[in-house]
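Office hours follow-up: a student asked to see two folded examples consecutively, so here they are.
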Amino acid sequence: MPSGTMKAIRVHEFGGPEVLRHDEVPIPEPGPGDVLVRVRAVGVNPPDWYVREGMRNIPPDKRPPLTLPAVLGTDVSGVVEAVAPDVRGFSVGDEVFGLLRFPSLEGSAYAEYVAAPAAHLAHKPDGVDHVRAAGVPMAGLTAWQFLIELGHDHPSPFQEAPHRPMALNDGTTVLINGAAGGVGHFALQLAKGKGARVIAVASGGHESFLRELGADEFIDYTKSRPEDVARDVDLVLDTVGGRDSGRLLRTLKHGGAVYPVFPGDHDADEVAQRGVTVSATQVRSNGPQLAELGRLLDAGALRVAVDSTYPLAEARAAHERAARGHIQGKIVLTVG
């Protein structure tokens, strides 16, 4: 097993992208149930900059504890370097990918090596390179757990009732708000795989990309408001959220549902009056579900769009790219 030090991206204080530091730190040792992964690529996700900023978008009483200095990151693709004695199913040299320790925010993936729970990993498909594999875990599992199968019984911080995905088929119409982003472009493909009709909402520059992925209808939100043109939708997957999100209720038919990936503003009286449902969950690490996504990737039934890549040492530039928005697919850090 490697010993000594490695490079990692850490925050020593909360703030903007400028607080990201390229540090020398000890190589972690895998504990029980862990494997040590030599990292080849890391996916960049919104929780990374939430942590960097000190979780200021979360009410103080709901913020998870954060200890500084902290290594950011949860999404990883790499090669197994060492395996704890109690781990089965993984061997040294295996190529793996995973969403690590989420939602605890202790994934520590922005590094050359990471100690990863074996239960959070899956074997990387042979036909998918590390860059694209690193773009899958959080975004892909979010789409899967919202749309296909929750896969766990942990209580949600967003609602008392467990989230139950709506059955999708060729009689279902799904509107995806923010369809070009990480979660959105996976959700579009998963919904199409179930036979659903998909309306993709994004800015105009993403239209050809989303139609290539299978979108049946495209709404350029810079020219038309979705609630003015879409009607009788069964399900809205809203990857944008925010104070203006309640307007999407107007697109739904009676009995429909909206799934807010990011917290939105939905008036309870209007929800009841329209006879619709608002349901959310929090994505969790899940190796078996990631293996299902891997099989779809291997079969060509799911593809990963990569917006841009940056070397690990340039994590600041990756976060600055994320802040500019209009992302098509995923931002990925390359390692080694």
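And the second, which I mentioned at the end of office hours:
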Amino acid sequence: MLIYGWRSYEVVLDFLFTVIFVLGVYYLIRYRLNLNKAVQLSKNALYPSKEDEFNSIILPVEWREMEPLSKNTKSYQYVKWGTVVAIILSTILLWIVLVTDLLEYSFFSVAYIFFAIINAVRHRGNLFILPNGLIFNGRYYSSNQIKGYEAEKIIRWHELYGLNSKGNNAYKLTLNIKNKRYTPNFIVIKDHDSLGQILDLLNMQGISGITKVEQPFSSVGNLTNKS
């Protein structure tokens, strides 16, 4: 009975990890497809469309200016080939799990390695305002998927202040997206005028929010301004 129970335990662990593997591969493929769709849609972006507009958007992880989204960029190529490598490595890991007893002794360690492989495939990030929706971090969202936004100035005592000189006295724009619980869900806008253009375009789509800046924008009727 003890041996039978142990074997059942092995089968359950193998099955559980196989399910996790399938979901992980599905996530990678879907992420790649979403990025491909974003590349096509970004050609119709209302903002940014010019070099100075791209430079006005700062990616908070690397603190670098945003670049156009195309299949020729290093970030896209990283996702393209990174997806292939991640699936191969994940398949090898699954094979090791199924033919050895590794999972029985260190399930959480193996799971951690698997999730680390999956999470390594990431695009640098971006924000494109479209006529009917937006692209955020390589994925398209329709207007009705955006619950709202919050804009606040990055001044002294703000959580982002001091992390990088590009962020100091800039603006943090947080997007509240339905069914999106992962971070980061914000981007940094360099100056007040650029932020105003972005918020005006969002408001035109019926996306409203809260601003915590020193003066109101043109779409004051749709905003709640706080000092």
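Two things to take away from it. The helical segments are 2-41, 51-55, 74-99, 102-105, 107-119, 192-204. The first strand starts at residue 57 and ends at 59.
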